[in-house]
Amino acid sequence: MNAVSTDQTNVTDTVMFLGVTLQPRSMPEMNKLVERGIRERQRWIIANHNLHSVYLFHRYPRLREFYSDVNWTYLDGMPLVALGRLYGYPLQRKQRVTHADWMGPLMELAAGRGWRVFNLGSPRQVAEKGAAQLRKLYPALQIEVSDGYFDARRDSDENEALVARINAYRPDLLMVGMGMPRQEFWTQENFARLKAHVILSSNGAAFEYVAGAVPTPPRWAGRMGLEWIFRLVNEPRRLFARYLIEPWYILLLLLQDYPRNRHGVKLRASAQVGG
Question: Can you give the pTM of this predicted structure?
Answer without folding.
Answer: 0.89
